[in-house]
TrEMBL record:
It comes from Verrucosispora sioxanthis. This is Uncharacterized protein. It comes from the Bacteria.
């Protein structure tokens, strides 16, 4: 009996995966895409930040100013406690930077599928916030020890802004560097047409590497 032939894996990236890819240079790009492809094939992957994000969202939704963040360190599994302890101070500082807790509410965001040439990219902010004056932001969190690079930041903000009508209409995309409690926004001098051309080239190379790794 002939073994069934598995269907080829279609090139695909999450926003996190793609922004980490554009941050790399030379041979590290190929090894990174190969790793993504193997992870997709094995359907592996675990998000250690899930409870942290829930706690942060709860503090925004219930206007508690950091109470849930302070408590989550004690309830998370011991192996993740050092990670959470390193994230809470910056996240709490960012939360306080938003102003009075009662003046900020949680807003529902939706995932969107961006196409860069033939490469699908899942756009998935962690949550949205809405201020008392009506302004809204679609928030993507950056958890890495190193600050987000200019390239990764531009890619994340541009692709989210490009699909904001689906994600959270009339909102501004922001990237929050959790460890440092800082917010990154699209620079005033950004050239969307140039960013689009750059990302299209990166996406084409991503697809080529993905296919070569088959």
């Amino acid at each position: 009996m002939t073994a069934p032939i598995s269907a080829p894996l279609t090139p695909y990236a999450t926003l996190l995966g793609f922004t980490r890819y554009v941050d790399r240079t030379g041979p590290t790009k190929a090894s990174f895409v190969g790793g993504l492809r193997r992870q997709r094939a094995s359907r592996s992957g675990f998000n250690p930040h899930g409870q942290f994000v829930k706690a942060l969202k709860a503090d925004i939704a219930f206007h508690t100013g950091g109470t849930h963040l302070a408590q989550v360190v004690d309830v998370v599994k011991p192996r993740w406690r050092p990670l959470y302890q390193s994230l809470v101070p910056g996240a709490t500082a960012w939360l306080h930077s938003l102003g009075e807790p009662a003046g900020v509410d949680l807003a529902q965001t939706r995932d969107a599928l961006a196409m860069l040439g033939d490469l699908p990219i899942k756009i998935n902010p962690h949550f949205g916030i809405r201020y008392a004056d009506g302004r809204a932001e679609a928030v993507r969190l950056h958890f890495d020890e190193a600050p987000p690079s200019e390239e990764a930041t531009l890619a994340a903000l541009h692709l989210t802004a490009r699909h904001m009508d689906a994600v959270l209409p009339h909102a501004e995309p922001v990237l929050v560097d959790v460890r440092r409690g800082s917010t990154h926004r699209m620079p005033d001098n950004a050239r969307p047409d140039e960013i689009e051309r750059w990302l299209a080239g990166e996406a084409a190379a991503f697809r080529a590497i993905w296919s070569a790794a088959a």
